[in-house]
Amino acid sequence: MIGRIAGRLDYRASDHVLIDVRGVGYLVYCSERTLAALPAPGEAVALYTDLLVREDNLQLFGFPTLLEKEWHRLLTSVQGVGAKVSLAILGTLGPEGVGRAITLGDAAAVKSAPGVGPKLAARVVNELKEKAAGVMAMGSFRGGALSPDPGEVVEADVPPPTRAAAPVQVAGGRAEAQADALSALVNLGYGQSEAAQAVASVEGEDASALIRAALKLLAPKG
Fold first, then answer.
1. Domain edge (last residue) among 77, 112, 133
2. Where does the record place the region Domain I (predicted)?
């Protein structure tokens, strides 16, 4: 499976890009948010990818971070959420926004994505709610965007999906769980001080529980 692709951006369309890798053009579908953040045609680009295999078609989907790719994997595991709907949700909310909405049970936020109705939004939240905090707390999925390395295609995927599916178990006790929860909240855009205060004010046995509780505390009231 092609897990990462790097090369020169040839052109950008409304829902995909063409990346030239040593003379071979790879068509990669991306969310609107990802497309808007990509460089101009002719410049180097790198994306993590997910390969969708069908009987009559092969499609590559591209993501700037492993966090976004992991959310795509989880979203498409929900019945009724195909690759295009997943990209619509990610394009509307971003990976951090998806994590926040699902953790807080905010189906209305998920529903704001094009093509997502209320029943599907509720299903996404209900099926992924217990997995959301685990994804956000996993350090290996907190990395930033890839550094482009033109001309390179790496056929190596991320670790098996089960890593993100299970709640995060912290061996180092409450202090380490709090540190992981604080890091995840800061990565979601909360200030260091308010995040630290929220984590210190809630109870939880592991980072996942602390993140869920802290997000509820930090959520706008009313």
1. 133
2. 1-64
Task: Identify residue 159 by its one-letter amino acid code.
Answer: P
Whether 121 maps to a domain, the answer reads yes
**Full pLDDT tens readout for the chain, 222 residues:** 678 999 999 999 999 999 999 999 999 999 999 999 999 999 999 999 998 887 778 899 999 998 899 999 999 999 999 999 999 999 999 998 898 888 888 999 999 999 999 999 999 999 998 888 777 765 433 444 555 554 454 444 333 333 333 333 333 466 777 777 778 787 777 877 787 888 888 887 787 788 888 888 887 765
Alpha helices in the chain (DSSP H): 32-37, 66-75, 83-103, 107-111, 118-137, 162-165, 174-187, 192-201, 207-218
Distance separating the N- and C-terminal Cα atoms of the chain: 46
What is the total count of domains within the chain? 3
* Strand-pair partners of 154: 4
How much is the pTM? 0.69
Range of the domain at 106: 66-133
Q: Are residues 35 and 74 in the same domain?
A: no
Does some domain include residue 154?
Answer: no
